Amino acid sequence: MEPRAARLSHTTITELMIPAYANFGGKVHGGVILELMDKVAYACAAKHAGGYCVTVAVEGVAFRAPVDVGDLVSLHAAVNYVGNSSLLVGIRVEAENVRVHSVRHTNTSYFWMVAKDDDGNLRKVPPLLLEDRDQVRRFLEAIHRKEMQRRYAAELNNVESDLAVERELHRLGDERCTLVPGLTTELTD
Prior knowledge:
The chain folds into two domains: 1-131, Thiol Ester Dehydrase, Chain A (Roll); 133-189, no CATH class. 32% of the residues lie in helices and 29% in strands. It contains four helices and seven strands; from the N terminus they run ββαβββββααα. Strand 5 (86-97) and strand 6 (102-115) form a beta hairpin. The N and C termini lie far apart (62 Å). The mean pLDDT is 94.
């Protein structure tokens, strides 16, 4: 397979935030932003892969600033990494207030996608042609992300399988929780 340049799959989606998108606090609901992020991740990954892709994981969704009704939201997506069938799409979300001509960075997130064939099987994707220092940095960061995810999953699996509730009860002392009367006895017997 011939490598494909990341610039060939760069994708931007811009949408006006309408009143129907507002949450109870009067700001745009986070779910609306997440849905748009999933759409732009799909479009970007599909352009690189040359076909159908699905989201397998979403990493690092943090809402840095609220989005207001009336803002123009632009989602900029780029393929940062490819494996055999997987792609990591980096997304930067910006909200523009057109009345005062200001742009705010509201979100950055990473979507792990995989390419599928017509039968739903994993399909190989083209290698990524890295054309500048920033693209090399993003690719290397993605390698580190994968390694960190593996370590975290292994550690969490160990905690879940080895957790002895009776030995860990002391951790609840500084937390905002209360055990119903008699539960401590039940847990330590």
